[in-house]
Amino acid sequence: MKTLRMFPRLPGGAAKLVPRRRKCVLLLVLVCLMQLLMLNFYESQTHLDMLNEVSEFLKMTSLTTSAKDFVQGFEHKLRGMNLSLDYNRYWKFYKELNNSKLRFNVNTYQELRKQKHLFDPRITYSVYLNYIRKQYEAVNPWNVDDSEDTNVRVPFSWQDWVDLSALNKYLVYSEEEKPTCKDIITKGIDYSPDRKVRNLRKQFDKTCVDNAMYQGPTSKHLLPGFNFVDRAGKRTFLEKKIHAKSYLLSGAPIPNSIIFLTENGTYEVYPEEDRTMMDSGLYQDYVKENQESEYIADPINELRLLTRTIPARKPELDFDEILVAENNYQYTIPIENFKYDYKSIIKDYESRMDTLTRKEVNHLNSLKYSESLSDNGLFKSFKEVNLNWPASYQGHKLQENGGHYDYRFFNGLLTESKINEFDDINEKRKIILHRMIHTWLQFTYKEGIVSFIAHGSLLSWYWDGLVFEWDNDIDVQMPIMDLDKFSLRFNNSMIVEDLTYGYGKYFIDCGSFPTHRKKGNGKNNIDARFIDVDNGLYIDITGLALTDTAKLPARFEREWRMIQKSAKSDPLVEEKNQKDAGLLKRGLTLDTAGSEHVPREDSAKKDLRQGVKRKVSIAAKTELPSNEALARNEKLQIYNCRNNHFYSYSELSPVRLSMMEGAPCFVPSDFAAVLKSEYSSGLKRFLFNKHLYLQDLRFWIPVSLVQAEVRKISGSSVRLSKMMSFYKEHEVEMLLKLLEEEEVLKEFFLTFETTSLHTREMELLAQINGGDESKEKEYRNLIASYKSLRKPIRKDLFNYLNELDKLQRSEKLILQDYERASSQNEGFYYVQEDPVKKPLAINKAGDSLKKLLGKDKSVKSVKSDKAPTEEEQEDSEENPVAPNQSGGRITGVSYGNPGIRRIHRTNKNKNKDSAEKAD
């Protein structure tokens, strides 16, 4: 009964309890909100602390503090900071890869690849590495044999490796509306179907073929209408970008090999057919195997699986084993490596023709072709971007003329590439050059290739171990026999950066005339190039060889006179007598190992801080006969490149292990003497090319930025000649103000660890050369640490451009492992969760080009419906059949591997021979 009576009371009681429950709920909600607010406040304060920590440190610094103590304290503060907590603001400070995994809809991607050109390196590398690992497991699980039977072979198409989306704007037209070669050459980027040239009866330009004449592997609907197979005449830089993309799509040969770099060695695979990963089935196989993976494109994981399954290949010349404390981490170059007996190489190849590898056959053909030509009959082997220049663009004069870009991989002028307000052209330049030299040095060290930093790059190394702030190219040198082996092994190969660092890839192109070692007509001073596939910038590679060059720099002429005076008899007369007696062969001289070479004092022991570049001083002497000049040069042990830069053996060897841009490198033994010979005051001039070198920060700063801080302190500017003295008088105050500038702070944050090591290296070297043996152990320990490759000190370029795109779309940048694909950029693609039932509509193309290069109609150039003049075509017509060291042609129809080439017909009556394969 009591229970029954309770029921009627329950609602009333419950009614009284509701407010209490609400209070509890509200209290709980309030507590949660307070915790959330506290957490957010703490995080914001943490971020605020991170943002202001540097400023607070600067504010607390007394002007009486010494600059050295301030910099040391500031470096200690930076080492403990984690700027990734505010990645959206400090994204340019971050060096590691971001968003290394890509989540995308596999069906959408496949459908869009049928309609237009898309590129994301994460997909390409993931698909290829997955396939390569399985191929290694099948044919070469130990990665030790390099025979034809155990080579890992892969399909290849430039469509998978380069962003060709600039061509997409032409794919929206019907086949009849697409521009022909004459349309694109005469109308350029202003082409539209209503301006189409009609009634074209013959081929307009031999560097380009229309779709109707194209017989290559690319589907017609992915061709823009025109197909460049060589470099055309001079045009604007906007047009040259389109030409380059078309060439890679339609005319470029596939690489001879692809080499993947890793921490422990390399993996080399061999492209054998011109097919995309979509057409060959590689993509479909990868998707099937990884269909349950949440983040399907993960190149780092695929690389990790490869390295765990298949051991990396080690080189014959293993610098890790050779460079030890006992030899002061130096490598003595065999003196024979500077003598090029290419005739013996040819003879050796011809004696075993039946057993030659593909690379050896190509190398033999190149040597024989080069040998057949005279010095003055050589055409230019390398082709840069040929622009209408001087020229103006959007109201200003162009700063670049195209000479620092390879025409095949040109992606626009860097100085005209500003994408949006978040973009920094100078930062992009630094990223490109840093990644290029870092990868080159990793590649040469891992492969046992002897090369050393040269010319302006050596001077920039001398100052701070970095590339100059204003540089746009890099120079390295090799002994001629090392260059010969390099060309044999790596010509027309593509080198892929260690994917744990970034997505860079670089093409090696070796010149067609290696047997010619003198200046000749001056068109072939460079022997090879290491070219950035994504933009066309390159490293110049030159070989040093013993030659019969008669004229010498004055310093070697003086030395030769000293030898002649001190000799009991004229060396040349003695050599002639020996030759008559049959003791000499081929006009060579005394054994250089026993020559009376007068050693020069090691200039590194002196303070030779002298520098600004000057021309090499050549003594005006009557030219010696060839055999006498060769004998003299061998006696002096001097070697030269094809631009008449001379060096002695003692200046070069043994090369020293050092570090540049965070990677192990070699520099000449007597680098100070080398630099002094090329520069008159470059080792001591702190003001150069509108930049001031600040020893406290250890890098070059634009004068305009320094001058701005000077005005803040003094109220007026100072003369350039007085700028350094003003800085010294206000050293700490100037440092404080400069580091408040985000650009200076970023540069110091990125470089201080690398430059501090370089500075200490140079200090120790100077002390040891001065007789302080107590520093030798510290020096050896420091140099030994260079053998361990350091990570890049700047962002990956693809990451940088990807994040610019996100900022343009007002997205917050987040530090994370993965991202979803985007539809906002031509280089990316749309993600949807449901499978695609029909192809998506193609977006109107051309936006990327306009974003990158601005209003295309503002380029001032003269348009004409007439064919290019002979002058415009002179470079591409010089020799249409010259083979390079891959066995292919320099111009005209290009060859990649023997038996594989891009096929087109030059007119309707020449379609049979064009389909033949190369011999």
Automatic annotation (TrEMBL):
**Domain LicD/FKTN/FKRP nucleotidyltransferase, residue spans:** 446-679
Q: How does it sit in the membrane?
A: Single-pass membrane protein
Segments carrying the region annotation (Disordered) are 857-919
Give the source's domain of life in one word. Eukaryota
Q: Give the keywords, sorted.
A: Membrane, Transferase, Transmembrane, Transmembrane helix
Question: What is one GO biological process annotated to this record?
Answer: glycoprotein metabolic process
Q: Which GO terms of the molecular function aspect are on file?
A: transferase activity
Q: Which residues cross the membrane?
A: 24-42
Residue spans of biased composition, Basic and acidic residues class: 857-869, 910-919
Give me the Gene Ontology terms describing cellular component. Answer: membrane
Localization, per the record, is: Membrane
Protein name in UniProt: Putative positive regulator of mannosylphosphate transferase
Its taxonomic placement starts with: Eukaryota, Fungi, Dikarya, Ascomycota, Saccharomycotina
